[in-house]
Specification:
This protein is α+β, with helices and mostly antiparallel strands and 463 residues long. Helix content is 32%, strand content 25%. It folds into two domains: 3-233, Glutamine Phosphoribosylpyrophosphate, subunit 1, domain 1 (4-Layer Sandwich); 249-443, Rossmann fold (3-Layer(aba) Sandwich). The chain has helices at 13-23, 51-55, 106-115, 128-135, 140-148, 196-200, 236-242, 254-268, 284-294, 317-327, 332-335, 351-362, 394-397, 400-407, 417-427, 437-440, 450-462; strands at 3-8, 31-38, 41-48, 65-71, 86-89, 94-103, 153-160, 164-169, 178-182, 189-192, 203-208, 213-218, 222-226, 234-235, 248-249, 252-253, 275-278, 302-304, 328-330, 339-344, 367-372, 411-414, 434-435.
C-alpha cells in the first residue's frame, strides 16, 4: 500500500498536501515525498520516515498545485531513491507522478524502454509510468492514454503539470481514489486515496474517481477521459483492514462494513464466552459487530500504544516480532478468569496472533477463542498489498486446526468468502465487483511476467 494526494487551486497547496498526507499516514510510513511547481520547474522534496519528519524542515513555499505520497514498499526496496513523486523537468514536458498499486508487467515495460534508450535510476515499478508518458506523443492526456494502454495491474495515480492536476484510476479500480472540493476556497480541489484526507483540510467529498477514468483539473475547467473498460475489481482488503474506518470508499462507509463483518462472523462462528475483546485497532469495529450479534459483552482487554506504527507494514520480520509486546498490553482485571472471544481482521503469518493469545492467557484468561473477520489468506497479492509469498502465508499450507494449534487458542474461526461479500452487500446492496484473489487465488490480472513474480518473492523474502 501507499497513499497519494494532489491539490490544485490554493497558493498553499504544498502545505495542505502535507496536512492531507498526515491523515493517510497509515497507508505507509517508510517514506514521504511531495512536489510542487515553482519558478517554471517542478521541485520535489523526499525523506525516509514520517510526514512529520519532512514537515519539520519543509520550506515555506507557495504553489497553486502540489502532489504527495506516503511510501510503503511492495515492489522496489525501502530506499530513499525509490521515494515518490517521480519528476520530469524536460524541455517539452514537466510532470510529477505519484502511484498507489503494483504494475504486474513493469519488468517487460522497463526492458522495452531501456532498449529504446531510457535510463532508470530506481527499482520501483512506478518509474516506468513517467518514462512511458515521456516517450509518447500528443497532449498530456493523449500521452497518458498511450502509456497506460501498455500497463497492466493496479494503479491509482495523481500527476501534476505546471497548470493541471490529473487523477487516474486503473480500469479494474483496485485501489481507491476520491475527489473533493475545498469549502472555503473557490475552485480549489483535492484528490486523495481516502476521504479522511479530505476532512483534515476542510474539503467536501464530491465523488470517487471512476475505474478507468482520467480526470483533469485545471484552473478553469474539469473534464474526464476514459481508458479501455474492464470488469471492476476493487480490493476487498481495503474495507477489511487497510483504509481508515472514518473513510468512505468504494461507495460505502468503512466502519459500517467492519461492523457488519463482525455480525456475520458471529453468525458463522459463534463462541461460548464471557467477553468480546478486539485486537486494537484493526479488530475494533468487527468486535463491536460480533458483540452486538452474539449478545456477549464487549470489553477493552488490550491497550495499544499509539506511538507505535502498524505491525503489518514494518519493513523487517525482526521488527514485526519485537514490536508486538511493545504495541499491545493486556488489562489483567478485564480478562483474568474470563472466556475471551478475541476478534481481529486477519491472520497473515500467525506469529502476531500467537503472541497476543499468549499475552491474554498469561494475564489470566481461562479460554481464548480467536475469530477473524476475513477468510484465510492463502495467496499473495500482486496489486499493492504486501501479503507475502505463499510459503509465508500460514493458511496456504496449514489447515484451520493446524493454525489453531500453532497460535495456541482454544478455538479458531474465520468468516467465509460468501459471508464477507454478504456483509458489504448488507451495507450497500449495489456494492459489487471486488477482488478476492488473496483468499480465492482468482486473479483478475494474472502476472504475465514470471520474472516479476520471482523479483517480488525475492524482495519479500529479503525483508
Amino acid at each position: 500500500m501507499c497513499g497519494i494526494v494532489g491539490i490544485l487551486g490554493s497558493e498553499d497547496s504544498p502545505y495542505y498536501t502535507l496536512l492531507a498526507l498526515h491523515a493517510i499516514q497509515h497507508r505507509g510510513h517508510e517514506g514521504v515525498g511531495i512536489a510542487w511547481f515553482e519558478n517554471g520547474t517542478i521541485l520535489p522534496e523526499r525523506r525516509v520516515g514520517l510526514v512529520s519528519d519532512l514537515a519539520k524542515k519543509f520550506p515555506k513555499v507557495k504553489s497553486h498545485v502540489a502532489i504527495g505520497h506516503v511510501h510503503y514498499s511492495t515492489t522496489g526496496r525501502s530506499e530513499a531513491r525509490n521515494l515518490q513523486p517521480f519528476v520530469i523537468n524536460g524541455m517539452n514536458l514537466k510532470l510529477a507522478v505519484c502511484h498507489n498499486g503494483n504494475i504486474v508487467n513493469f519488468l517487460s515495460l522497463r526492458r522495452m524502454r531501456e532498449n529504446e534508450g531510457s535510463v532508470f535510476t530506481t527499482d520501483s515499478d512506478t518509474e516506468v509510468i513517467p518514462h512511458l508518458i515521456a516517450s509518447s506523443k500528443g497532449d498530456i492526456v493523449a500521452r497518458i492514454k498511450t502509456a497506460l494502454s501498455m500497463v497492466k495491474g493496479a494503479y491509482s495515480l495523481v500527476m501534476m503539470t505546471q497548470d493541471s492536476l490529473i487523477a487516474v484510476r486503473d480500469p479494474w479500480g483496485f485501489r481507491p481514489l476520491v475527489l473533493g472540493k475545498f469549502r472555503n476556497l473557490k475552485n480549489a480541489y483535492i484528490v486523495a486515496s481516502e476521504t479522511c484526507a479530505l476532512d483534515i483540510v476542510d474539503s467536501e467529498f464530491i465523488r470517487e474517481i471512476e475505474p478507468g477514468e482520467i480526470l483533469v483539473i485545471s484552473r478553469d475547467k474539469i473534464y474526464s477521459e476514459r481508458l479501455k473498460p474492464a470488469d471492476k475489481r476493487e480490493c476487498i482488503f481495503e474495507l477489511i483492514y487497510f483504509s481508515r474506518p472514518d473513510s468512505h470508499i468504494f461507495g460505502v462507509d468503512v466502519w459500517s462494513v467492519r461492523i457488519m463483518l463482525g455480525r456475520i462472523l458471529a453468525q458463522e462462528q459463534p463462541a461460548d464466552a464471557d467477553i468480546v475483546v478486539p485486537v486494537p485497532d484493526s479488530g475494533l469495529f468487527s468486535s463491536i459487530g460480533y458483540s452486538e450479534e452474539s449478545k456477549i459483552p464487549f470489553a477493552y482487554g488490550l491497550v495499544r500504544n499509539h506511538y507505535i506504527g502498524r505491525t503489518f507494514i514494518e519493513p523487517s520480520a525482526k521488527e514485526r516480532i519485537s514490536e508486538v509486546s511493545i504495541k499491545l498490553n493486556p488489562i489483567k482485571g478485564v480478562v483474568s478468569g474470563k472466556r475471551v472471544v478475541l476478534v481481529d481482521d486477519s491472520i497473515v503469518r500467525g506469529t502476531t496472533s500467537r503472541k497476543i493469545v499468549k499475552m491474554l492467557k498469561d494475564a489470566g484468561a481461562r479460554e481464548v477463542h480467536l475469530r477473524i473477520s476475513s477468510p484465510p489468506i492463502r495467496y499473495p497479492c500482486y496489486y499493492g498489498i504486501d501479503t507475502p509469498s505463499e510459503g509465508e502465508l500460514i493458511a496456504s499450507s496449514h489447515s484451520i486446526e493446524e493454525i489453531r494449534n500453532f497460535i495456541g487458542c482454544d478455538s479458531l474461526g474465520y468468516i467465509s468468502v460468501d459471508g464477507m461479500l454478504k456483509a458489504v452487500k448488507l451495507v450497500d446492496s449495489s456494492a459489487d465487483g471486488f477482488c478476492t484473489a488473496c483468499f480465492t487465488g482468482r486473479y483478475p490480472v494474472p502476472p504475465e511476467d514470471a520474472e516479476f513474480i520471482k523479483q517480488l518473492r525475492l524482495f519479500r523474502d529479503d525483508i
